[in-house]
Every structure is written in structure tokens, then in C-alpha cells.
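User: I'm designing a mutation panel for glucuronosyl-galactosyl-proteoglycan 4-alpha-N-acetylglucosaminyltransferase and want to avoid disrupting the core. Could you give me a predicted structure to guide residue selection? Please restate the sequence first so the numbering is unambiguous.

Assistant: Good idea. Sequence first, for numbering, then the predicted C-alpha cells:
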Amino acid sequence: MILIHERICQWLGHLKLSRVILMVTVILFVVPLFTHYYLSKYESSSMALGSNNMRHTLETLGDLSAVNVGDLKIRIEEMLRIKASVSTELRELEERRGKLQKEAAAASANADSVKAEYARATAELQRLRVSADQARLAQLEAIRRDSPELAPPLPILPSSPPPIIPPAASTSEVHCRMHSCFDHSRCSLTSGFPVYFYDPDVFSPLIGAEVDGFLKTTLRQTLSYNSHLTQNPNEACVYLVLVGEGFPSDKTQTSTNKLLLNETAIKSLPYWGGDGRNHVLLNLARRDLSVGSGDAFLDSSTGRAMIAQSTFTLRQFRPGFDLVTPPALGPPGGDVWSDCAPMAPARRLYILSFQGSQTPATGSHKDDDQSLIESLRKMASQAPSSDVFLLQFDCDPPIDKRAVLPIGDWGLCGTDRSRRAVLRDSTFVLILAPADRDYASTALLQARLYEALRSGAIPVILGGDRIQMPYSEVLDWRRATLSLPKARVTELHFLLRALSDADLLAFRRQGRLLWERYLSSVQASMDSLLATIRTRLNIPPHSAAPTMGAPAFNESYYPPKIEPPAVDTEPEETLGPLEAPYPSPSYRRNYSVSLLNGYELWNDWGEPFALFPQLPWDPPVTSEARFMGSAAGFRPIGAGAGGSGKEFSEALGGDRPREQFTIVILTYEREAVLAAALARLRGLPYLNKVVVVWNGVNPPLSSQSWPESGAPVAVVRAPRNSLNNRFLPYNVIDTEAVLCVDDDAHLRHDEIVFAFRVWREHRDRIVGFPGRYHAWDLNFNNGFLYNSNYSCELSMVLTGAAFVHRYYLWSYWRLLPAAVRDYVDQYMNCEDIAMNFLVAHITRKPPVKVTSRWTFRCPGCPVTLSADETHFHERHKCIQFFSQVFGYTPLLSTQYRADSVLFKTRISHDKQKCFKFI
């Protein structure tokens, strides 16, 4: 009944009021007529009956009439109730209809207002676009006005070197300098410093010597890796000639074991040009460190060619022109960390050691080393028992008397293995200059320096005020060695004891850096030699070749895009603008930085010092060169000092130009997890590009739909499955800031933007979220262990969610020893620890952790590598192995954590214009 009533009400709701009134009126007139007709019918039928039944009929009719009248009354009352209900509902419907009409009129008026506002907004947007185009044009004009695009200078290089160069102003060979004996017309600023190498197998017989086979093969191989080598002699700036280690081809000379340089033969080299300008004569001592092979040019005329060797006299050496090189005692190239001793402990068994035997010194230009020896012995005898000296001034067994040594020089005792054992136990090692004061350097002295730095013994050079060190014009040896005149030998013990443990480790660390980078191998020595000459000429190096990432899809194929699910919740505040991608500012100082700053870098104490020329492992000539990085420490050039209020917020931390960042995601065949990660990046401010490193064996499915992230997505396929691929410096990365993220890391947009702001104030560090630390193993005392517990300090920030500078991606593959990357591949672990080791080794600064986030949870993700129970045991071993490779543990602990000043702080609307922090 209720259902019928509801349907009637619905039906009545659709009727008009006039029709309802008409219907009710009709019913009120028809029902009485029908009742009257029915009663009349029964009355006429009763009259047709017989007289005998009339009474009975009348009684029956009377009863029926009474019944019909009662039903009729009930029906009428029911109809009246329906009428009242319908009337009430009709009144309610009328009221509702009036309200709807008013709302429709208001909506129509609002729509007109919105249309007008849309028209005004469209006009304003068009005006802003025009203004933006005008501002962009004005910016381009300003850039062109202030930093014009200069065309390369006119070529100054002749088409081919002339057979005979006309002589310049009269200049003695002894007084040769770069301005007087070098042809700068062959080395233009934009030439790239091309170097031509005379093939030893072809030209050595002309020189009159038989060059050592190891040096010939090694030099030819190592120079082939140098980006400056050219096979076209017509365009060369410098010509290399390998003279030694040479042995006389004339067997009659074996009595003196001295190489007599064939001046006629060497001057007949095809590109000698009459006087040998722009030529470098290489004499690399290796097997025989005597004067015979160490000084091949004594009393010889070499014209205006540079000389590079280990043995020089003061009369022969031409400062700023000739080069002192270390002996070729190391391997051809490669990792040399296994030859080094650990840097710790700071103090070793012997405070000072020396082993050597001196040849007699004659002539007026000699020092009396006998009194020096007596002073040293007296110092050792009077030293306290805690200071142990090992001073041996006579070799046992004696040195071969047939060896020809420089006059007054000190020969090496024992074998390389025995000397290495003593040096590994020595805090300092004594190096005595030759008694003959005519010598500026000898091969034996350079060999002692080489062995001392290799074993971590700090060299103490007595008489070093006249000694020339290898590549001293670009390397600051004061940070790695101690130098005293022989007259101050009595102060030696006091000076050694005055150095603290921190100073000892700083000396040892710098010494190992110089040895590894510039002296350890033939390749390192030759690269340093060429870089020194190039630095003299102020010619920038070649930029490092970028890593070309193989695209996972064809150029004509684009994966289908799907819109990410809409998010109903609005952010509490604006995190930043959503802008079109733009790269970091180009580095335009590649030709002027050497003129302005020379080779000055910044050491661990914040002081500038000349360090090293840029070698083939130079950073690309882009914005990375701001760091001028080396493992001795650097600081960003022009780092922002911060700002205040609105300016600070707009600069995103520091008074630097605006910039964006690139997100690098490493994934392994987890399309669903990757799709969720890309979807979470939708609407992220300052995002330049997303680089997906596909680490899987199988390529991604072409049918896979990729969610729209709001920024360009480049999917590159790695050559093999390796965690090291996370740090490949791909050419598609256009920004200095790189956010390394795991595909299963969940980060909010405000956390990412805040970490980006913090990184802009600490551009030389790792800035990220999950913090870890290393702790000393007290139980077994065998090194540091990896710890992921919550603590009040940290020394690592995992690169599964961290910002790093693009320079470190390049350094990971050029500066980090290959043994570290091989170890990561072997255990499929610890690439984040390796990056923390590298950055701490370069900067000597701890990382920066942001926010209170410590771990990441991904409940719906497949099992990860970190879920393996052996994960932490492998990370313990990684720290210990990396410490062996570096020689020490470079990680530094900190209790500093960066949090936003106004995080979750309610600010009134009128003050938000001044405070726009997260």
C-alpha cells in the first residue's frame, strides 16, 4: 500500500495543479450520479417480482442500500484525505520549483561572471606570454652583449712544420726559457694541445741507443690513452722523443756504461726544425739508476728542446723549461693501491729511518756529510726510548763497486722488498741530498722519494733547499714532505716530535695522493708531464667524453602515457613553480680559469695551494669545472652565501641563479613499481628530467603504459646488470643537481624540494634522507662495521634517496679505483658506501641528512636485495675492503641534521609573502 501511495505521489508530482483540480471535480460529480443510477436499477428490478415476494425484496433492497451508502461514505472520506495530501505535496512542489528557479537564475548569473573572468584571464595570460617573450629576448640580448659568442681565433698554425726554422734572437741553450726557445705559433689556444710521439722502433737507431723494450712498449701503449696524442705531425704542438732508459749500441762503451748521445742523428729527426724547438727529450730511468743512464745529455748539445729526466745538475737544469720526472719504477698503469701501506696508525715503529751508502765526494762544490752523520747518530743516541731511530750509513751487503753513481750521492741498500719492509714501519724517512752541490736532482734521490711515498713514510729532505722535485711548478710538495737545510740537522728531532697525529696523517694522505696520481705508474708520470707543459701554455684540456646512454626504445617509439590518479587533497602551500625544463648554466670559463686562478685549489684547511695540472681524467669542460676537483679537496667557485626573506626563497638557498634537478631511478624489471614511482612525481617543482636506468637483462615491454610524470622521461638501457650504473654520467643529464632515487623509495614533494634547497647550500656534499654510520668493532678489533641503527650521529647518507653533484658521477668512474667498482659488481651491494667514501675522501666533509626520515617502506614491492640476511655482513666487508683501497677510512661523523625552519608552522596570510619556506 505504501508503494502504491508513493507511485501515486510520484505521478501526481508530474501533474499540473489545474489538471488535478479538474479531475477532483469530475470525480465529485460522477460518483453521486453513478450511485443514483445503481439504486434506481435495483428499485426497477424489485417491482417486476410477484406480490408474494415484495416484502422480502423490499427488506433485502433496504439492507443493500444501507450497505452501499456506508461504502460510499468510506470511499468519499478516503478521497478527501488523498485530496488533502495531494494539496500539501503540491504546495511543497511549488515551493521547491520556486527555489530551483532562483538557483537557476543565480547559476546563470555566475556562469556569465565566470565567462567574463575567463576572458579577462585569457587576456592577462596572453599579455604575460608577450611579456615573457620580451623578457627572454632581453635576456638573450644581455647575454650576447655581456658574454658574446666568440668565433675561434684565426689559425696561427702553419700548414706543415718547416724543415729548418729560422733562428730567433741569439739565445744560449743554457738560458732557454719558454718565451725564448718555444714556438708558440704551433700551440694556439683552441688547438687542443696535439702531441706527436716519434715511434721508438723507427727513430731510436738514429739516436744511437737501444731503448729499453719495456719502456718502448709501455710508453706507446699509455700515450695511446691520452686524448692529446695525434698521428698527424703537421698539426702537432709538442713532439716527444724517447731517448732512454737507453743503452749504448756501441759495445765499446760498456766500460763506462754511459750513453753518448749522437747529436748528428738526433738533429736529423724529420721535424727537428734545425734547433729542436717544441721537442721533449725523454730519459726515463728504470733499471739502472746510475749516472750513466740517468743523465744521457751531460755535455751534449740538445738545441732548444726540453729535457725530461730525473738527474740534473744546477748548471744544466733550466727552471720553467726542463722537467724533473720520477724514475719509471712502477707498473704501466692501472690500480696501484695494493702497493701502498695503510695510513693508520699515525706513528709507527721507527720515528726516523735511513739506509744508504755514499760514494766519496771530491772537489770544491761538496758538503761535508761526515759531520752530518755524526749529528744524526748523536741525536739518535740521546733520544728517549720511545723514539726509535734506524740509521744505517753503510750497506750490508755493500753496493756493487762497478755501479757508477753521482759524486757524493747515496746508493740504495738491499732489495726493494727489504726496503719496503723498513719504510712501512717508519713514520719519517730521511733523504739526503748529494754531497756534490752541483746536483739539483738525481735518479737515486727521486727513487727514494718514490719508495717513501709508496709506503707512507713522510720524506724528510736534508739539503732540500736546492733539490728540484717532480713537477714542482704545479705540485705543492710542502704538503707532503719536510725540507731542511743540512745546517739545521740539530733541530730535526724537535721538529719531528712537534707534529701531531693529525698533522702526520695529513702529510701521509697528501703524499699518497701525489704518489698515486702522478708518480705511481708510467702512464701517470707521462700524463703529468704533458699536463704540466699544457698548463704552461694556458691551453684547456679536452673535455671528458660523456657516457652515451643506449635508449631502451627506438627513436620513433614513445610508450603510451596514462594519467596518474587524481589527488583530492590540496597541498598546504605552494612548493615552487612548475616550469619547462632548462639545463644548468653552461661553464664558459674553460679558457680563462687558468689565467685567473692558475692551478690554485683549496685544501682541507680552506687555504689555496697549487696542486695538480688537469690530466686525461679532467672533468668535462662544463659546469663541473666549477669544482676544479681533486682528491685533495675543493670548494665550489662562487658558492652562494645565502640571503634573507623573499630573495632567499626565490634563489632556493643562496644567491645563485635558479636551477632544476634531474632524478635518476635505477630499476630492475619492476614495471609496476617503476610506474608507481613515476606517478608520484606528477607536479613536482624544479624537476628537469627523469632518467630511468633500466638495469634488467630483458628490455622493457613496448606495451607497458607509463604514467605521466610531468617532466621528460629518458629510459636508458645499461650495458649489463650492475649497481654501478646508478652513477654513470649519462649525456642526457643536463643539470648539476642529481637526485638518485630507488624505484621503491616513497618521498613527498615537500621533502624533495626541501632537500634540494639544502643541497644548494652544500653543493659539494651528499644531501639525502636515510642516514647510516660506521662503528669500530670492539669485539674483534679488525676494523669498522656498518650500522643502520638509530643514533645521534651519522657518517653516511645512502644514495637510494640523496642529492649529489654531477661531478661525482664523473669522479666515480675516473677517480675511484676500479677495484671498488669490481667489488660492488661481485657482491651486488655497497655502491652507496663507495660513493660516500669517494665524496668524503675528496671533500673531507661529512654528508648532510635532511628531515627525520630514516628508512623507506614499500609493502607492495617485490623482495629487494637489502632483504637478504647476508646484506649486512657484506656491507661490513665493504667498509673494510674500501678502507684498504683508500689506505684509511675517510668517513667523517656528524650530529648535524637539516630541518626546515618553518616546517608545519601556521603563518598568517599577511606574512606568507615574506616567508615561503616549506
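For picking mutation sites, this is relevant: The CA atoms of residues 684 and 749 lie 6 Å apart. The chain has 22 helices and 32 strands.
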